[in-house]
Design goal:
With 363 residues, the protein is α+β, with helices and mostly antiparallel strands. 27% of the residues lie in helices and 27% in strands. It has nine helices and 19 strands. The strands form five sheets. An eight-stranded mixed sheet has the order 1-2-6-3-7-18-8-17. A four-stranded antiparallel sheet has the order 13-15-9-16, with helices on one face. Strands 4-5-19 form a three-stranded antiparallel sheet. Strand 4 and strand 5 form a beta hairpin. Helix 7 packs across helix 9. The model has no long low-confidence stretch (mean pLDDT 94).
């Protein structure tokens, strides 16, 4: 049944953030919040609203020269009960007031900023597409952005630039790195551990894999004026079947974080080159996203905010935009180091600062 909870978009951004957070929306249980977001946006005459599952897309159609996307996920990780991190509450802390509770960082503050922009900017300088999407915190097959791309790609078509309002401590982080996981294996011959000469120890052979990783010198690549520091390292190792058996197999799982100037195929080829002579199975590979700082929309964004731009050294959903040819940056309230924490909290001033910055850019 539709939710009866309402969101008042005329409220200040901090109060609106609290209201959005207080509608529980753990991944795969976003209907109540999606209902509230849809109900708040449909009366706005300058927006065309579409719903796909529990993802809400709202668009202006003013014939502007550029179109930008503002995107944010509406789900959260599970709540804690002791201490209970909902409902939200305002707390006076050293350095100023904070809003405390689940979602205040990741990322309902960004969602509230988007809602305020949708309410306040009736004639934006660029056409806008707002995407409030479900299921970002879990397996990507459930991701609302992916569903929009698959079911209604026209809703995101022709965009020139995107801003993902993930928490960045109210700083601009351009693009993101790609991430590849591969299993590098060695093969041995099983034998009794009392007679190791009868077999061949696969774990011992993994020494060469680890030696190559220790000697590896990661590249730093400049992409659209930003420095992306690559990384390649072991993240898991497994082998052996029993304490009295010489292992016949060992698997070292490696993670390669690569600059967005490389394609997924480039990244895979590089990993296979590094571990030439070993069996390599790529188990996951998600490309990165170029920041596109040379584009007019990106330049105007940076000038309007008056903030320095850093490279995003992790992976975010901006990569989904890059995959369809739309450069993107991350910019939103909240310290990402506090995301998912039991004491998740964000300075109130960051909500206000992010809202004002986007209004300067788009009004």
């Amino acid at each position: 049944m539709p939710s009866t909870t309402t969101l008042d978009l005329t409220h200040d951004v901090t109060s609106l953030t609290a209201a959005v957070c207080d509608i529980e929306s753990v991944s795969l249980d976003e209907q109540a919040l999606a209902d509230a977001v849809e109900a708040a946006l449909r009366p706005l005459p300058h927006l065309d609203v579409t719903r796909i599952g529990n993802t809400v897309v709202a668009r202006t159609d003013l014939g502007r020269d550029e179109r930008v996307v503002l995107a944010g996920h509406i789900d959260t990780v599970p709540l804690t009960r002791d201490p209970a991190n909902l409902p939200t509450r305002r707390v006076h802390a050293q350095g100023g007031e904070v809003l405390w509770g689940r979602g205040t960082v990741d990322m309902k503050g960004g969602v509230a900023v988007m809602l305020r922009v949708a309410q306040e900017v009736l004639e934006p300088s660029r056409d806008l597409t707002f995407v409030f999407y479900e299921a970002e915190e879990i397996d990507s097959v459930h991701n609302g952005l992916l569903h929009v791309q698959q079911q209604a790609p026209g809703l995101l078509a022709a965009a020139d630039f995107a801003v993902l309002l993930e928490p960045t401590d109210a700083r601009i982080e351009g693009g993101c790195k790609g991430t590849l996981r591969a299993e590098v294996s060695t093969k041995g011959i099983a034998a009794h551990s009392a007679r190791p000469w009868k077999g061949h120890n696969a774990i011992h052979d993994a020494v060469e894999i680890l030696a190559r990783l220790s000697a590896y010198e990661p590249a730093t690549r400049v992409v659209d004026e930003l420095e992306f520091r690559e990384a390649l390292g072991a993240v898991l190792i497994s082998g052996g079947t029993a304490t009295n058996v010489i292992p016949d197999r060992c698997v070292v799982t490696v993670n390669y974080r690569y600059a967005p100037s490389l394609t997924e195929a480039d990244a895979e080829a590089h990993v296979r080159e590094v571990f030439s002579g070993f069996e390599v199975a790529v188990v996951d590979n998600a490309g990165g996203a170029r920041p596109g700082l040379h584009l007019p929309a990106a330049k105007a964004f940076i000038e309007a905010l008056g903030l320095p731009v850093e490279a995003k050294q992790g992976w975010t959903d901006v990569a989904r935009f890059s995959a369809i040819g739309v450069p993107a940056v991350n910019f939103g309230p909240g310290d990402p180091n506090l995301a998912h924490m039991d004491d998740e909290q964000c300075p109130v001033e960051q909500y206000v600062a992010c809202e004002r910055a986007l209004l300067r850019w788009l009004a």
